[in-house]
Amino acid sequence: MVENSMLALKASFNCLVLLTALAVGSTASADHANTALSVAQIQLKDLRTSQSSVSYHAEKPTVLMYFQPDCSWCKKQGKIITELLGECGNSVHFTLVGDKGSKSQLKRELRHFSADTPSKQSNKMFVRKSGGVKGFPTTLVLDTQGHVLAKRRGFTSETMLRRLTNELSQGECAL
Fold first, then answer.
1. How many domains does the chain have?
2. Whole-model pTM over 0.70
């Protein structure tokens, strides 16, 4: 009983931290944005087409999920992201970034994710500039300039992702 309430408290706290970081990040000054974590202008190769582009969208906020080969939690969170892409794709950009595997391993993992979700291969510079990855999945929230507004290691529940996308879309993506 105590363990369940501690887990619920931790989940609520993590959600609050994500939403607070988002709110603070959206009102931060330009000077602060220059010192924050940023993946601005870092090109990543698309795992499906081999073309290079940035991982964020210039006109809408981005929810980015780091994944690795054989990660069952990544697959579970990827299914949630696929649902959210269908419901919220007009107001929030979703992207997957593969890490800790060869290009062929990461491409094989894409069978578990929607073909509509952009998927990139990470590089050392991107990982470093995004604050590092210590576990999978890791979820980042990026603004339209590629600045990291929030970061969470581990599986993010559907409820928390829905709240986050609703907040990012300023209510356009209904819960």
1. 1
2. yes
